[in-house]
Sequence to fold (405 residues):
Amino acid sequence: MILDTCLLISLAIICCLFIDMVENVDDDPGDRKPSVVDSVKVEASVKVEASVKVEASCVNSDVWKLRDNEVDTAHFFSTRDTWKDKDELLGWVRRQANRAGFMVIIRRSCEGRNAMLELVCERSGEHKVPNRKVKHEAAGSRKCGCLFKVRGYVVGEDNAWKLAILNDVHNHETVSYVAGHLLAGRLMEDDKKIVHDLTNSSVKPKNILTNLKKKRKESMTNIKQVYNERHKFKKAKRGELTEMQYLISKLEENGYVYYIREKCESKTVQDIFWTHPMLVKLFNNFPTVLIMDSTYKTNLYRMPLFEIVGVTSTYLTYSVGFAFMMSEKEDNFTWVLQMLLKLLEPNSDMPKVVVTDRDTSMMNVVANVLPDSSAILCYFHVGKNVRARIITDCKVKQNVVVMDG
Fold:
């Protein structure tokens, strides 16, 4: 049945060709009617020419006119250089993107035989509205569907990496200054290790940032990102423990002497006093002179840090103990001084001189707990108070000093 159908179709085509040849046998070649075969050839040639033109227009991107909000960044990434590994390529692309005024993120990456690294603009893709109710409903998104895309791939026997530009046009404006950007200043793994090591060594954040800048001159990390990394590191170290619980665990781990006072109605720590056993020995040998003062903004709970310092017979100072207090009231100072006296051995001498900063509550407590000692004012705080008062009490006019009163 199928063979019969094919045979009939072939005979019909032959008949059409024969009739066409008979009709055009006496005609001039220029006036000859187009045949079925010719029409097929003409249509094919038109389709081929059209497809070639379309492909040529797609390949030649120079003929495209950029819109007002589009930016071409091809000249930043057009290069024939090769890189020895993926990390080196990624670093180069990120530096070029910073120069161009935008950030890149990794869209895809694979290892093995067909190793590949695909990088896109941070504003690529569409914003996905979360199903849950967000805290800030008016918050926007940086996503705008940017089509910028470059791809790194491995070539040659030496496994060198090259870069191909798949799309070099952004549908948004770039920025002229990327310092302070979340992605521009992010810390690399080596930088994080430096932050962790220096944090364990009690190095200040500003000095940590200086160290990072010296290591990588192109680094755009700011002090806020150093603080954030320090916070993450400390939080990971203490695990599920709170700051106060972690402090107590470290005191027990290192053999410190400490005392805790809790609130009556709850287990909340109200005051905590601690010191090192070596400091206890120094205090029993040199208890004559004590210097007491408080400092602030040292902890998450905003508890004042009360420090007690002693003086040796060679006029060297040493720390006697430290205390976190809920407030600077007489009740808190009384408890701290009572814990301090517990450190003295029965045959040790009592403190004879206590130096304070003229805190009324502290001076009253010293008079009650240490009645045989003399309370004097700190020379530094006296000088600081004089300098502060002299500005308001003295008026300088025409090089003449006039004292009020």
About this structure: The longest helix spans residues 36-59. Residues 24-63, 400-405 have pLDDT under 50 and may be disordered. The chain is about 40% helix and 20% strand.
